Amino acid sequence: MLDNNQLLRFTTAGSVDDGKSTLIGRLLYDSKSIFEDQLAAIESTSKKKGHDGVDMALFTDGLRDEREQGITIDVAYRYFTTPKRKFIIADTPGHIQYTRNMVTGASTANAAIILVDARHGVIEQTKRHAFIASLLQIPHIIVCINKMDLVDFSEKAYESIINQFEEFSSKLLVKDVRFIPISALLGDNVVNRSENMSWYQGAPLLHTLETMHISSDINKVDARFPVQTVLRPQNESHRDYRGYAGRIAGGVFRVGDEVIVLPSGFTSRIKTIDVLDEALEEAYAPMSISMTLDDDIDISRGDMIVRTKNRPKTTQDLEVMLCWLHDDASKPRAKYSIRHTSNDQKAMIKEVIYKFDINTLDRNSDDKILEMNDISKVKIRTTKPLMVDEYRENRTTGSIILIDDATNETVAAGMIV
Residue 42 to residues 23, 56, 97, 235: CA-CA distances in angstroms? Predict the structure, then answer.
């Protein structure tokens, strides 16, 4: 049995009308993860819309505009639990004008479910979603070939789409790709094995998600501890306590380990590791802890505690794959606030190296203005050094966001390359 505390985050992506919301609705419905009052409300809405049964898409399309237009606009998060695992689902839009929403939903995912319509095969939007999943270094991709009932549950149609996808995905940095033929509308191979596709010997979608190995997805080698706050409780029992609290971004820390504090460069050893009132001998990503050191060192929010012989790169110059999230376009050499782990600094976009055409994956070096949903490679200069890893090595210490100082709005999210 898997540890039920292990949480799997997954995102769904696919072209418009490929059935993403219907698939999630079916997953929740067949796994009995819907409350009775929710089910009653959806059944009532389904009848008003003239459906014979329950419209599965209504379980996720919560905005009024989404229900009226029959499309997904915003990222919808749903939570459910089975006896084997806890899940967070990010239902992301398929339209090209909502690329930023997909990037937002996929940024923390362990797995991506990419839906393909069995009648249409791999199309441009399928390639775009696979490219974004690859860019975001999502470790596991499940290609669900949906609407198999509309192609008479044909094994030949299934094999043809696998060949199309593999031909394209061979160019991408994707470690683990799996294929499942499903019918979200009828429930084939979603929670229960399909009787209509006896030729498929693999597991249904839910079993695949429940048994997927995700422990190795977190970097357990490079020890990284960004300090979020310094704990100085002013009471008799903790008068001399000075702890450093935060969430471990990578690796394993043990009591007695020699560590170095960046950017100051002072070294010490870990004295204690605490979680609430419990003392631990070791802690690992992504645990939230506080630790104390043998030496009284000046440490503050934004500093990073790492192993002495395994340090991140300390630099003011970053090359970043940037997704522009804001309605207003970027301004040449404009200044922004950059947030990296718990570190806030000022930064400037020095140069736009190229922009990706998300449909063709071509690179455009001439267009230097970043507009909403654009994905581009840029050079960023910060006022003070940041302690960074490449995104493909550590998704926490390898990611940044840019914030407009005037409005305090997030304008871009980026992956350090």
Answer: 15, 8, 28, 53
CATH architecture of the region 313-416: Beta Barrel (2.40)
Residue environment code for 16-40, b if the CB has 16+ CB neighbours within 10 A, otherwise e: eebbbbbbbbbbbbbbebbeeeeee
Q: Which tens digits make up the pLDDT trace of 305-348? A: 999 999 999 999 999 999 898 989 988 778 899 999 999 999 99
Contact 297, 344 (CB under 8 A): no
Domain spans of the chain, in order of start:
7-217, 224-307, 313-416
Q: What is the pTM of this model?
A: 0.82
pLDDT value at position 25?
Answer: 83
DSSP states of 34-90:
S-HHHHHHHHHHHHHTT-SS--GGGGT--SHHHHHHTS--S-EEEEEE-SS-EEEEE
Strand ranges inside 303-369, DSSP E: 304-307, 313-324, 335-340, 343-356, 363-364
pLDDT greater than 80 at residue 44:
no
Please give the Cα distance from 138 to 172 (Å, whole number): 12
Choosing among 3.30.70.20, 3.90.1510.10, 3.30.465.10, 3.40.50.300, the CATH entry for 7-217 is 3.40.50.300
Fill in the DSSP letter of residue 231. E
- Residue 358 to residue 250: CA distance in whole angstroms: 31
pLDDT band at 73 (very low <50, low <70, confident <90, very high): very low
- The residue type of 223 is A
Residues present in the chain in total: 417
Rounded CA-CA distance 169/129 in Å is 11
Which tokens is 245 given?
Answer: 């609290």
Tokens encoding 267: 């070294």
